[in-house]
Amino acid sequence: xxxxxxxxxxxxxxxxxxxxxxxxxxxxxxxxxxxxxxxxxxxxxxxxxxxxxxxxxxxxxxxxxxxxxxxxxxxxxxxxxxxxxxxxxxxxxxxxxxxxxxxxxxxxxxxxxxxxxxxxxxxxxxxxxxxxxxxxxxxxxxxxxxxxxxxxxxxxxxxxxxxxxxxxxxxxxxxxxxxxxxxxxxxxxxxxxxxxxxxxxxxxxxxxxxxxxxxxxxxxxxxxxxxxxxxxxxxxxxxxxxxxxxxxxxxxxxxxxxxxxxxxxxxxxxxxxxxxxxxxxxxxxxxxxxxxxxxxxxxxxxxxxxxxxxxxxxxxxxxxxxxxxxxxxxxxxxxxxxxxxxxxxxxxxxxxxxxxxxxxxxxxxxxxxxxxxxxxxxxxxxxxxxxxxxxxxxxxxxxxxxxxxxxxxxxxxxxxxxxxxxxxxxxxxxxxxxxxxxxxxxxxxxxxxxxxxxxxxxxxxxxxxxxxxxxxxxxxxxxxxxxxxxxxxxxxxxxxxxxxxxxxxxxxxx
Length: 510
Description:
Largest sheet: 11 strands, mixed
CATH class of the domain at 6-258: Alpha Beta
GO biological process, one term: translation
Strand order of the largest sheet: 1-3-2-4-6-5-12-13-11-9-10
CATH topology of the domain at 6-258: Amidase signature (AS) enzymes
Distance between the termini: 27 Å
Family: Belongs to the amidase family. GatA subfamily.
GO molecular function: ATP binding; glutaminyl-tRNA synthase (glutamine-hydrolyzing) activity; transferase activity
Active site: 82, 157, 181
Oligomer: single chain
Number of helices: 16
CATH architecture of the domain at 6-258: Alpha-Beta Complex
EC number: 6.3.5.7
């Protein structure tokens, strides 16, 4: 069997869906070819667990629906899940030794909703351990490699998801974004990814890192494929206390995002060649400082000019607390991680040390053996800032700054612009191991994405060019919207992708 998946012959989920419904190929054929490719392409280290029997069973179920004319919207479409979503059958490890071999008795809501929509899972994807990282170098099972350059990182923490999509192993993949972990790997791998408004997608069954920040989002090659996953993924879930019942007065349910997307596209089509006429694009001065690489700045500037050619208007804005988003995030997120990861104690599930003298030593040894260096570093930081005498000075103060950062975004949207655009990362993908001597250096790469997560806003990354001192590597454009504007963001990105081809470039074909 060929190691090139059959689905790569189709440019979008919509075209592949049409072929499946016309019975030009079967879901089983698609799944088998994707499995073959995923098992053959071990150089990326993108997959952590593949179970052909489970995958083919889902494909056979999709074929039955297709044969009966009762196909769900994603019936037969091959996807894969980041290894922080619990799954029945497939192992769920969060890329950590402490959960090695763990199999959940239930599916995460994101997983079950996509399965109900007919999607066929090829397996579980590698990531930074417990989603803590910006380069996918923190996995207990080795780093994922960027399909454009195997010596470079794919970005993190959803690096396995972005790499699998960029390499054509799956049509789309799920990811999670706590401080930029969907947008950043999408940017560095030359694909598209979106983080929706916090609370619009259920966190039930998603292994927690920072509970007030974590949000699931899809990664795919282009905006319309993101819509195909994000719409059925979204919706209220009573099992998740952070899940929203309504979104600006509209029920949080599948169909909301698609309706907004369709309305925006209809308005764009009516405007003709100036499809985005009147759209005010806010460009923060703080995103274009001395820390931004010249090649990234040039690619983003070219993208902004394209948007202007479509009728949009550029507006200079200021987000003065941008640099403070780094210390704010790296107080709040580790504090929440310290609390969330306290459940891994060697008592109920997960790794347990082989030798210990008492309960306290069992817990200590189990955690020391099971957690990686970056996870332990963040647990220690989080425990410190939550401790007596430091809570007010650090954690409480960080929450105050968080509110101020959110207010800066609110003011920009209410007074100056409709969307905000800028870079996703300060530079292109670094080489694996570049920051080994300074483990906190990767934290600085999140400067353009953290504020969005702290504010709970929707944002996405789309390919907009290439940079790099030697071999060309992808550059991503970040598009930030106001609360619950996911459909409009996707429509804006789709219009850009109709007149550019950056999202169609593939590794080895640049």
